[in-house]
C-alpha cells in the first residue's frame, strides 16, 4: 500500500471519466436503480439485527445509491460514501446538502485510506470495487475498517459475454478507430471481477470469511434521449472519441448509437445487467 496506489485509476476518474459520470449522473442513477434496491434490501436485513450502526459505500460515485441507502435506513445509521474521484465526490456532497441528508462523503482511495471513525457495521458497493490495482490489499484495508462480524455486500459485473449491452460501443467502434485498447481479463476495470474463483480467493486472502458469489441479474432502463451522450462519453470508446476531429467523431458516434437499436423500445433503452452478488463477513475474532 503506497501513495502511488491506483495511480492510473486516479487519473482516469479525476479526469474525463469522472466528468462524464458527473454530467450523466441522472441517466446512470436511473439505469442502476434496480441494483441500488438490491443493496437496500441487504442493508435492511442487516439493520434488523443491528438497528443502528455505520455503513461505508465503496466507490460511491455521485452518491445516488448512498443517499438512497440513507433514506431507507434512517437516522439511526450513519453513512459514509468514499470514492477516488474528486468531481464525483463534490457532486455527491452537493446532492447531500440539497437533500439535507446526514451522509459524509470522502474523496479517498479505500485501498490505502485509514478511516478515522472505523469500525463499520456494514460495507456495500454498487459496481465500485473492481478498480483496485492491488485488490487483496484493498479488501484487507476494508476488513481492518470493519467491526468483528460486520457484513460486506457488493455488486460486481460478471463477464462481457453475459453483458452484451456493455460492449456494444467498443464492438462497433473498434473497426472505425485506431488503437482502441482491448479489455484485459482480470485487470482493474468494469469486468475485473468477472472470474468467480479468482474473486473468492482475493476475499479469502484479504481475511474475509463466509465468502460467497451468487449470480444475479437486473432489468435496467434509461431514457432513449440520453443514449447519445451515454454512448459517446462513457467507457473506453468515450475516451478514444475525445481525441478525434469533430466530423470523424460524429460519424463514429452515429454508428455506435445505431448499433444499440436492439436495446431500444418505446423511448427507453432496456438491457439486462448480469452481476455477481459478492458477500462476506469479517471474522468475529478481529479487533
From TrEMBL:
One of its GO terms (molecular function) is demethylmenaquinone methyltransferase activity. Keywords: Methyltransferase, Transferase. It comes from the Bacteria. Residues 56-149 form the Methyltransferase domain. It is an enzyme of class 2 (transferase). GO terms for biological process: methylation. CDD domains: AdoMet_MTases (cd02440). Its EC number is 2.1.1.163. The keyword Transferase applies. Pfam families: Methyltransf_25. This is Demethylmenaquinone methyltransferase.
Amino acid at each position: 500500500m503506497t501513495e502511488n496506489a491506483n495511480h492510473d485509476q486516479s487519473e482516469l476518474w479525476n479526469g474525463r471519466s469522472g466528468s462524464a459520470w458527473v454530467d450523466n449522473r441522472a441517466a446512470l442513477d436511473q439505469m442502476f436503480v434496480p441494483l441500488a434496491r438490491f443493496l437496500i434490501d441487504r442493508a435492511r436485513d442487516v439493520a434488523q439485527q443491528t438497528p443502528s450502526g455505520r455503513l461505508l459505500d465503496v466507490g460511491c460515485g455521485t452518491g445516488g445509491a448512498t443517499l438512497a441507502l440513507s433514506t431507507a435506513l434512517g437516522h439511526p445509521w450513519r453513512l459514509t460514501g468514499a470514492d477516488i474521484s474528486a468531481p464525483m465526490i463534490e457532486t455527491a456532497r452537493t446532492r447531500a446538502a440539497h437533500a439535507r441528508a446526514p451522509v459524509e462523503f470522502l474523496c479517498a482511495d479505500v485501498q490505502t485510506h485509514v478511516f478515522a471513525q472505523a469500525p463499520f457495521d456494514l460495507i456495500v458497493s454498487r459496481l465500485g470495487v473492481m478498480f483496485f490495482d492491488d485488490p487483496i490489499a484493498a479488501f484487507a484495508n476494508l476488513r481492518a475498517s470493519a467491526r468483528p462480524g460486520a457484513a460486506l455486500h457488493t455488486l460486481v459485473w460478471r463477464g462481457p459475454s453475459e453483458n452484451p449491452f456493455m460492449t456494444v460501443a467498443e464492438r462497433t467502434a473498434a473497426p472505425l478507430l485506431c488503437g482502441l485498447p482491448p479489455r484485459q481479463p482480470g485487470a482493474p476495470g468494469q469486468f475485473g471481477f468477472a472470474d468467480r474463483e479468482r474473486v473468492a480467493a482475493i476475499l479469502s486472502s484479504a481475511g474475509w470469511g463466509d465468502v460467497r458469489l451468487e449470480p444475479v441479474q437486473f432489468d435496467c432502463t434509461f431514457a432513449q434521449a440520453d443514449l447519445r451522450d451515454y454512448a459517446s462519453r462513457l467507457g473506453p470508446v468515450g475516451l478514444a472519441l475525445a481525441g478525434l476531429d469533430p466530423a470523424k467523431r460524429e460519424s463514429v458516434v452515429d454508428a455506435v448509437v445505431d448499433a444499440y437499436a436492439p436495446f431500444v423500445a418505446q423511448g427507453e433503452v432496456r438491457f439486462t445487467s448480469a452481476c455477481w452478488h459478492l458477500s462476506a463477513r469479517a471474522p468475529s475474532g478481529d479487533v
